């Protein structure tokens, strides 16, 4: 069963709970928080979730905040993370096909709950195309 990390800040909490409930039917979900709508600092939840994907404990990660930007920027500080900010299913598909994204960031304040589910489903069911894209992905990490 595919293992997925999920995390959110207070703005993304409601979406996290909806996505978690939807995805638990067919995936193993590890919830890294937050666990309420009380104001929090998103890096406190994103770093553990991203680390779990980076070290192979989870294959993919889903992050949610108001704009999706903060969680995406934070996750992408991890060397082996390729987190894509997605607001439509087509962007999620391209993030997987061309960039081999292993985490997705959603902007809860700008997309409907139903659309969030569609975007995540597209992300999780799309494969990396490899080929010409592999060479580009290999050049992303900078150390």
Automatic annotation (TrEMBL):
<protein>
    <submittedName>
        <fullName>Ribose 5-phosphate isomerase B</fullName>
    </submittedName>
</protein>
<feature type="binding site">
    <location>
        <position position="109"/>
    </location>
    <ligand>
        <name>D-ribulose 5-phosphate</name>
    </ligand>
</feature>
<feature type="binding site">
    <location>
        <position position="136"/>
    </location>
    <ligand>
        <name>D-ribulose 5-phosphate</name>
    </ligand>
</feature>
<dbReference type="Pfam" id="PF02502">
    <property type="entry name" value="LacAB_rpiB"/>
</dbReference>
<feature type="active site" description="Proton donor">
    <location>
        <position position="98"/>
    </location>
</feature>
<dbReference type="InterPro" id="IPR003500">
    <property type="entry name" value="RpiB_LacA_LacB"/>
</dbReference>
<keyword id="KW-0413">Isomerase</keyword>
<feature type="active site" description="Proton acceptor">
    <location>
        <position position="65"/>
    </location>
</feature>
<dbReference type="InterPro" id="IPR004785">
    <property type="entry name" value="RpiB"/>
</dbReference>
<dbReference type="InterPro" id="IPR036569">
    <property type="entry name" value="RpiB_LacA_LacB_sf"/>
</dbReference>
<dbReference type="GO" id="GO:0019316">
    <property type="term" value="P:D-allose catabolic process"/>
</dbReference>
<feature type="binding site">
    <location>
        <begin position="66"/>
        <end position="70"/>
    </location>
    <ligand>
        <name>D-ribulose 5-phosphate</name>
    </ligand>
</feature>
<feature type="binding site">
    <location>
        <position position="132"/>
    </location>
    <ligand>
        <name>D-ribulose 5-phosphate</name>
    </ligand>
</feature>
<feature type="binding site">
    <location>
        <position position="99"/>
    </location>
    <ligand>
        <name>D-ribulose 5-phosphate</name>
    </ligand>
</feature>
<feature type="binding site">
    <location>
        <begin position="9"/>
        <end position="10"/>
    </location>
    <ligand>
        <name>D-ribulose 5-phosphate</name>
    </ligand>
</feature>
<dbReference type="GO" id="GO:0009052">
    <property type="term" value="P:pentose-phosphate shunt, non-oxidative branch"/>
</dbReference>
<comment type="similarity">
    <text>Belongs to the LacAB/RpiB family.</text>
</comment>
<dbReference type="GO" id="GO:0004751">
    <property type="term" value="F:ribose-5-phosphate isomerase activity"/>
</dbReference>
């Amino acid at each position: 069963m595919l293992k997925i990390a999920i995390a959110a800040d207070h703005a993304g909490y409601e979406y996290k709970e909806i996505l978690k409930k939807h995805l638990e039917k067919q995936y193993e979900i590890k919830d890294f928080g937050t666990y309420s709508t009380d104001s929090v600092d998103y890096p406190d939840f994103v770093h553990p979730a991203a680390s779990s994907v980076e070290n192979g404990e989870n294959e993919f990660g889903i992050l949610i905040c108001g704009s999706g930007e903060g969680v995406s920027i934070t996750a992408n500080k991890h060397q082996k993370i390729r987190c894509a900010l997605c607001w439509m299913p087509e962007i999620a598909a391209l993030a997987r096909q061309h960039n081999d994204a292993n985490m997705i960031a959603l902007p809860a304040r700008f997309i409907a709950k139903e659309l969030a589910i569609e975007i995540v489903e597209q992300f999780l069911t799309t494969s990396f195309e490899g080929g010409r894209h592999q060479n580009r992905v290999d050049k992303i990490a900078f150390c």
